[in-house]
UniProtKB/TrEMBL annotation:
InterPro entries: Chorismate_synth, Chorismate_synth_AroC_sf, Chorismate_synthase_CS. Its EC number is 4.2.3.5. This is Chorismate synthase. Belongs to the chorismate synthase family. NADP(+) binds at residues 41, 47. It comes from Aminomonas paucivorans DSM 12260. The gene is aroC. PROSITE patterns: CHORISMATE_SYNTHASE_2. NCBIfam families: aroC, PRK05382.1.
Length: 387
């Protein structure tokens, strides 16, 4: 069984459609749960004014009945509450030329897809490119990833996230369950209260200077049996698939698995996780590998660290060229975020969940949730020790 999803929609368009295919029947999916993750995606000290204007109006169009999946494709619609204002600019059947011209973006922002999007698709200005390249589409991805997360929860797998750095102010990762929980509820994704004030100051300072910030965050998956993913072909390796999914989040420029870059400087004797006997099986005392060996889960916590670049739309814009006049100008200023790292973390959690749910579905298959869960439990049993 393969899971897949597709989306359609533009940032200021009518809304986003998300169609998910391959989910087994009998999975309880609550729209409230999807809304909860959408609300987390909108969080963050440093988000722009748009977050206050937009609401994620979510509806299910198919594949759910009485709160359970039927086995049919799932369809979700996220309506854009600002659509009427944008209709003259983006109407699929004909725009108002004056308003479309006024909303044209001819000063491409360095660090965004504006310029290359125009060159690639043959547009004279960047409105079409930026409408689809916008990170607003990550709301639709969050819907898909949350359904995957609900499936994983039904299999005993948990996905967590926490921000570990904003604008160069790094903090230590969460160490306790309470700290992970705090990070989940915090608007900064921060595991400890005392670390929030320096981050807020950093965001305020950037905003005052017309600047933007990036940062780092962690995504963790626990409760996984050994053996999801495979070394059998390059594209089945789960470390590559997870890194690819997280790098797909707009602005993410680095993904590290476990101790990642730090391992490069160590000798082999310090770098790997030795295997010890334990009652009824084996155990590890370290997790430098971040839960992945040979392209597969090894039964330990999967730990991924991401680095996000600063937001490209600056209050104090960078130099660029005007696409019509070819004159040197300052880049377009759109209302936007000073920092979106806490939101990017939520999107990354969703895409990590999606990737892991795909691996679980490929490995354990099943048309019904009970079949998938039964086979997943067998995998877990086998992982304890197969003699
Ligand atoms: C949740 C989220 C919100 C974002 N908000 C903005 C924004 O308001 N303005 C902006 O220019 N970029 C924003 N970005 C970042 C851009 O989408 C990203 O830097 C851009 O797509 C280019 O990144 P890429 O080179 O990785 O594609 C946001 C990213 C995420 C994940």
């Amino acid at each position: 069984m393969t899971l897949r999803f597709l989306t359609s929609g533009e940032s200021h368009g009518r809304g986003y459609l998300t169609v998910l295919e391959g989910f087994p029947s009998g999975l309880a999916v609550s729209l409230e749960r999807l809304r909860e993750e959408l609300a987390r995606r909108r969080r963050g000290y440093g988000r722009g004014a748009r977050m206050g204007l937009e609401r994620d109006v979510l509806a299910c169009w198919g594949g759910l009945r009485d709160g359970f999946t039927t086995g049919a494709p799932l369809g979700f619609v996220l309506e854009n509450t600002e659509w009427e204002q944008w209709r003259p600019v983006l109407d699929p059947q004909g725009v108002d030329p004056e308003q479309a011209e006024a909303r044209g973006v001819t000063r491409p922002r360095p660090g965004h897809g504006d310029l290359t999007g125009c060159l690639k698709y043959g547009h004279g200005e960047a409105r079409n490119a930026l409408e689809r390249a916008s990170a607003r589409s990550t709301a639709a991805w969050t819907v898909a990833g949350t359904v995957a997360r609900i499936l994983l929860e039904g299999l005993g797998v948990r996905v967590r996230g926490a921000v570990t750095g904003l604008g160069g102010v790094e903090i230590s990762p969460p160490e306790t369950e309470d700290q992970w929980l705090r990070a989940r509820g915090s608007e900064l994704g921060c595991p400890r209260e005392e670390d929030e004030a320096p981050w807020r100051r950093r965001v305020d300072q950037a905003r005052e200077g017309g600047q933007t910030l990036g940062g780092t965050f962690l995504v963790s998956l626990t409760g996984l049996p050994p053996g999801l993913g495979s070394f059998a072909e390059w594209d089945r390796r789960l470390d590559g698939r997870l890194a690819g999914a997280l790098m797909a989040v707009p602005g993410i420029k680095g993904v590290e698995v476990g101790d990642g870059f730090r391992l490069a400087a160590l000798e082999g004797g310090q770098a790997h996780d030795e295997i010890f006997p334990a009652p009824g099986g084996f155990c590890r005392r370290t997790n430098r590998a971040g839960g992945l060996e040979g392209g597969m889960t090894n039964g330990e916590e999967v730990l991924l660290r991401c680095a996000m670049k600063p937001i490209p739309t600056l209050g104090r814009p960078l130099r660029t060229l005007d696409l019509r006049t070819h004159e040197a100008v300052e880049a377009q200023v759109e209302r936007g975020d000073v920092c979106a790292v806490p939101s990017a973390c939520v999107v990354a959690e969703a895409l990590a969940a999606w990737t892991m749910a795909c691996a679980a579905a490929e490995c354990c298959g099943g048309d019904r949730m009970e079949e998938l869960a039964g086979r997943f439990e067998e995998l877990r049993e086998r992982g304890r020790w197969e003699r």
